[in-house]
Amino acid sequence: MANTSANLLKNLWSDAEASGMSEPERLVYRSNLLGSDKRITNYGGGNTSSKISEKDPFTGQEAEVLWVKGSGGDIASIRLEGFATLYMDKLQALKKLYRGIEHEDEMVGYLPHCTFNLNPRAASIDTPLHAFVPYPYVDHMHPDAIIAIAAAEDSRELTRKIFGDAIGWLPWKRPGFELGLWLEKFCEENPEARGVILESHGLFTWGDSPKSCYETTIDTINRAIAWLEEETSGTPAFGGPRHEALSAEERRSAASLLMPQIRGMISREGNYKVGHFVDSPAVLDFVNSRHMPDLAPLGTSCPDHFLRTKIRPLMIDFDPAQPDLDAAVNALPGALDAYRADYQAYYDRCRHTDSPPVRDPNAVVYLMPGVGMFTFAADKATARIAAEFYVNAINVMRDASAVSTYRGLPEQEAFDIEYWLLEEAKLQRMPKPKSLAGRVALITGGGGGIGRATAARLMREGACVVLADIDEPSLDTARADFAEAFSPDMVRTVRLDVTDEDAVAEAYRQAGIEYGGVDIIVSNAGISSSAPIEDTDLAAWNRNMDILAKGYFLVSREGFRFFKRQKMGGNIVFIASKNGLAASPNASAYCTAKAAEIHLARCLALEGAEHQIRVNTVNPDAVLRGSKIWTGEWREQRAAAYSMKPDELEEHYRKRSMLKRSVLPEDVAEAVCFLASDVSAKSTGNILNVDAGNAQSFTR
Ligand code: NAD
């Protein structure tokens, strides 16, 4: 037997840690241990339960209470409040109300009536599965190694061969009340069994103590891992390679070219998509393999997998030995149309009279030989998780097809889960997407005061941001802060000198790879300098012209190229300055460069309109707080220009304004957000002053 110790799961149970805990705390502990390894269960997949004796707050009597992971959430991070609590006697009494499989769904409506202690956490569809297993501790996991056996054509025989009587087998049945009854019957008829494999689905295990339940789960998965490893050692995965992968650099180039084009073809107003790219060894093994073209159309097996990835992926026609990316791009519209037609046909074949209307017919997963996998969803986390799930599905297909014949879930069963009325109700209950959900914003000078405030504002509306700045430490801080305040999925950073033509193109490439596209460009990177004209040396003049006028030109030019390839319109907001409209003493280089930006924006508004590319300008004035510009010598120079001390400046500007108010980075961000979002869809070529009122810069 091969040495499998490196690939086996570790038993992480610690008596010392668990002993001081209450029963509910031990359930959290067990769940978190199981969830800490994605080989045990996928994100959000699986659930755990304990049947615990508790004092009923209503009667004062002891009651048996089922603590079971509630609807939503993930066992890796679940806390006490993530569990639903239900009276066991009431759950048992539901059997009397059950009218049979035809009426199974109505049982979900009874679950809230079984709630113990007014717990607001909603019970999940899997609740009866845990309730009716007649053991106090139950785990339900989706381990890749077990699903590989569960998705094999002869999964029943394989289960017996690997586990003997210890672990039983049940044929595919959609989770619900009926499956709960099946599990109960199985346990009664097989008192020696410590668990059961559910065909095409996953694993149920149980025990008389939390520790024994946990250990049975780990041991059962390890047995499957060891057996599969022994059986498949020496067998090339997926029939061996058919293609060679492109180099890492070429893969990224291909991704940055194709992803925005796909995104443009699958996004619609009100339904924008964000992309995710994976070219890990597991993915490359699959997309480059001989068997991929036969396996991928069979679809995924575990319901969790295909709810996230759609029943099957789209395969991009591409030969890495003759890498013709233009041909791959040109073939995309036809391939996407064919996929959509196929999905509609699947819906038409499988629909019932009361099925919900057909949903978005576009693929979620795109497989490209030599390059890797792209996934697209309404937000970055969902796209990333879809990719993780497809990697689970790849693992399952690899092992199942090596030891047997891999079987996806029958189409009608898959449809019945995908278009389950209960699933539809869950979708309907989801909050409405935020106004910039699915959009991607590239913000130059994103490490600075106005850039950061703008990023935060757009992220609050659901946008993903790519912060681009020459100052790497400020980018690192911004990224860490936003990852914590929002989510690591929503922020990326790229070092960029806006005066460098190649670096600008590279920033867009990065955005394409990281998020699949760009919708909003905030051209904001800037500096400032102050000197009377006769003391303004050529270097200072050129620096202002370079970073401001030329930088805004390069960022916009590349943005136009990108937008036109993506074919989704586009939105550019310039952060210019009041000084671009109103002359200011001793700052001719800065003021002239800012005036150039403002006029560039107007020219681009004219050129962009026919492509639905909008270009608008925000003119701030005197934003001292948070701005790095105002911590440097500009502050000293401006103070000198007005014959005052540097710390008197903020008050000076406030008093100078018509409204007598200080302008903050958040005020500028609000204006950008307005111009960057659809509420201003009919505005282009405009200037919005955010200067607390300055008659000199009134626009005409
Ligand atoms: P800031 O200094 O805090 O931010 C500017 C950012 O641009 C910095 O992080 C800097 O590293 C970056 N940057 C500079 N040169 C770059 C280059 N070559 N490539 C890439 N990034 C570069 O200043 P801020 O106040 O946030 O200014 C943002 C924009 O607002 C600037 O264009 C500025 O001219 C404009 N503005 C500011 C004020 C104000 O009072 N703060 C007023 C009017 C206009």
Q: Describe it for me?
A:
By secondary structure, this protein is of the alpha/beta class. The protein has 3 domains: 22-232, Class II aldolase/adducin N-terminal domain (L-fuculose-1-phosphate Aldolase), CATH 3.40.225.10; 248-429, L-fuculose-1-phosphate Aldolase, CATH 3.40.225.10; 440-624 and 662-689, NAD(P)-binding Rossmann-like Domain (Rossmann fold, 3-Layer(aba) Sandwich). Helix content is 44%, strand content 14%. The chain contains 24 helices and 18 strands. A 7-stranded mixed sheet has the order 3-2-1-4-7-6-5, with helices on both faces. A 7-stranded parallel sheet has the order 14-13-12-15-16-17-18, sandwiched between helices. α9 (248-266) crosses α13 (325-350). The protein starts with 14 loop residues before the first helix and ends in a 10-residue tail after the last strand. The mean pLDDT is 95. The site of nicotinamide-adenine-dinucleotide has 32 residues, from α17 and α20.
Summarize the structure.
By secondary structure, the chain is an alpha/beta fold. It is 44% helix and 14% strand.
How do the strands and helices of this protein lay out in sequence?
Elements: H1 15-19, H2 23-35, E1 47-55, E2 62-69, E3 83-87, H3 88-97, H4 127-132, E4 137-141, H5 144-150, H6 155-163, E5 167-170, H7 177-189, E6 195-198, E7 202-207, H8 210-232, H9 248-266, E8 274-278, H10 281-287, H11 292-295, H12 303-309, E9 314-315, H13 325-350, E10 365-368, E11 372-377, H14 380-403, H15 411-418, H16 421-429, E12 440-444, H17 449-460, E13 464-469, H18 472-485, E14 491-495, H19 501-515, E15 520-523, H20 538-566, E16 570-575, H21 588-608, E17 613-620, H22 633-641, H23 649-656, H24 665-676, E18 687-690
Parallel strand pairs: 5-6, 9-10, 12-13, 12-15, 13-14, 15-16, 16-17, 17-18
Antiparallel strand pairs: 1-2, 1-4, 2-3, 4-7, 6-7, 8-11, 10-11
Helix pairs in contact: 2-8, 5-14, 9-13, 9-19, 12-14, 17-24, 19-20, 20-21
Bound molecules: nicotinamide-adenine-dinucleotide.
The site of nicotinamide-adenine-dinucleotide has 32 residues, from helix 17 and helix 20.
